[in-house]
Amino acid sequence: MLHMFISSKIAVKSIHHGKSLIAKEIKSKDEVLIRFKGKIINHPTKFSLQIDEGKHLDDSGEIDNYLNHSCNPNSYIDFSDISLKAIKKIKIGEEITFNYLTTEWDMANKFICQCGNKNCFHNIKGFKYLSLLQKRNLKHILSPFLQKKLTEEIK
């Protein structure tokens, strides 16, 4: 049962572990799904999106409250316009997810992932807690802030 419409293309649906964003129509690779808005705060919260050192976009849970983590996501954050874009084709009724470890250095709300993916990160605490190999494997969808952190670590 759909509970709330985010747009004519995305809705919120109750699922087994809470609520989630669901595609109401097929989404193409690199299609913009959501444009984020909010105010900049200097600390992470459960619903903020880290955009730089000490800079977090807080949308007060409007969207992030329903945008769930996946170790094998179908979307990513494009920081050129702070939007959520599809990594691959997303089918009607499919949950829209992104990997929190691609934006958050040290998460305010850490948790154990239970996605069951063969490459599951398990402890979702923040990018800084990953091994160098794990960090490199995420490079293609990292925020500019975390790409900079990875470059500094490799030097």
Describe the structure.
The chain is mainly beta. It has helices at 132-137, 144-154, and strands at 2-5, 10-15, 18-23, 32-35, 39-41, 48-52, 55-58, 68-69, 75-78, 83-86, 97-98, 111-112, 123-124. A 3-stranded antiparallel beta sheet has the order 1-2-3, with no helix packed on it. The chain has a 3-stranded antiparallel beta sheet with strand order 4-10-9, with no helix packed on it. Strands 5-7-6 form a 3-stranded antiparallel beta sheet. The longest helix has 11 residues, at 144-154.
Features:
globular, mainly beta, three-stranded antiparallel beta sheet, 155 residues, 13 strands, disordered N terminus, single chain
Strand-helix topology:
Blueprint: E1 2-5, E2 10-15, E3 18-23, E4 32-35, E5 39-41, E6 48-52, E7 55-58, E8 68-69, E9 75-78, E10 83-86, E11 97-98, E12 111-112, E13 123-124, H1 132-137, H2 144-154
Parallel strand pairs: 8-11
Antiparallel strand pairs: 1-2, 2-3, 4-10, 5-7, 6-7, 9-10, 12-13
Could you give a quick summary of the protein structure above?
By secondary structure, this protein is mainly beta. The protein has helices at 132-137, 144-154, and strands at residues 2-5, 10-15, 18-23, 32-35, 39-41, 48-52, 55-58, 68-69, 75-78, 83-86, 97-98, 111-112, 123-124.
The largest pleated sheet is described as:
3 strands, antiparallel
The quaternary structure here is single chain
Query: Topology as H/E string?
Result: EEEEEEEEEEEEEHH
Radius of gyration: 15 Å
Outline: globular
Instruction: State the secondary-structure class.
Output: mainly beta
Number of helices: 2
Distance between the termini: 50 Å
* Proportion of residues in helical segments: 10-25%
Average of the residue pLDDT scores? 89
Low-confidence residue ranges: 1-5
State the total count of DSSP E strands: 13
Placed side by side, the strands forming the largest sheet appear as 1-2-3
Q: Which band does the percent of strand residues land in?
A: 25-35%
